[in-house]
User: Fold this.
Amino acid sequence: MNGPVVVVGATGHTGGLVARALAARGTPTRLAGRRPEALAPLADALGPAVVDVVRVEVDDVRSLHAAFEGAGAVVNTVGPFLRLGLPIAAAAVDRGVPYVDCTAEQAFVRRVWEALDLPAQRTGVSVLPGHGADWGLACLAVGVLSGAVGHLRRVDSYHDLGGFTPSAGTARSMLEMVGEPVVGFADGAWGDLDPRVRRVSLPTGTGILAVPFAGGDVALLPRDLPSLRHVGSHLVLSGAEAWGVSLGQRLLSAARPLLRPTWLHPVADAVAARLPEPAQPAPWSLWTRADGDATAWMLLEGDDTYAVSAELLAEIGTRLARGEAMATGVRSAAVALPAAEVLDGLAGVRARVVPEWRVGRATVSRDPCASPGAAGSGTP
Ligand SMILES: NC(=O)c1ccc[n+]([C@@H]2O[C@H](COP(=O)([O-])OP(=O)(O)OC[C@H]3O[C@@H](n4cnc5c(N)ncnc54)[C@H](OP(=O)(O)O)[C@@H]3O)[C@@H](O)[C@H]2O)c1
Assistant:
């Protein structure tokens, strides 16, 4: 281990879960936040894995540099990321410390790439924005499947979040996101996201409705895997919801030029202040399809979206701190880490594929959809 993993925002819902997941691994951990009085009891509860506690202010670069001194990796959970995230990522890069965050804001992923890809390559560190449960897992699935389909041309992920209830922090970030343009990646180029509802057949034979949304994987994967011509990130929704979300995205994109951060920020803060933290864990599932010379699918599923985000951030942070990164610059876990091993290291995630597939430390068979009834006929 090159130094402790610094959890920035450890007093928050996700940051606290990440700190616990790091402590469960025995990873040396530094808790960072703007309220030391709230960090102290967490440190006491987590025991010897917490090696120190530091105060940081997002707008005080010196406090960030001091917090990252001697660190092995930074895990950033401070959102909304578009408002607060970039100074933290930039300070990690300045200090030469690998970085991962859980933003669900696609525009932030793009901003990190534009601002920090070259500096991170120069300092020789890996920067992995947007590696919470949703896109982080999709990137890992693509990392596993890309080795199984030959010349990779297309990937699509389908997120079913079931009865997901957003935390206050997630709600605030979601509301602020509506003011940002969203992009899709089709025919080898980024452009306006086409939010039309798709009907898709899963390898199980089940039909689903999928609505494209602003995935961070859409921003990262085409740079990491240049043979890709299409990257799709979709929400799985039931009939009325699917058409409603699709229509909502169209209306928002028309209204976007009128939306201003100066109006959105206070609205987002006011709404978030009234929300309770999610009481019930929300089951989730994620199907990922990769198309190349062959087609391959992977299913990942679990019982608690926030717990799996924390698991993923803790596992990635621990591996980055051990110096396991395989690529520098702003990257996805599809190429920056050994994807199958990372998936194997996650508690509470069931990695499953149609019966003849094997995943985890083993390989995915080359033509896993070849069995009768398993063909992914509904090309999205
Ligand atoms: N993609 C995913 O799967 C996924 C999963 C989980 C979370 N997320 C994202 O992670 C973010 C955090 O979510 P959450 O539920 O953990 O939110 P939260 O409970 O509100 O936590 C936010 C953290 O940020 C800190 N913070 C807020 N404003 C700050 C500022 N100006 N300076 C320094 N620190 C500040 C808070 O400190 P205080 O405690 O002092 O207020 C707290 O530690 C959101 O953007 C959410 O969308 C994404």
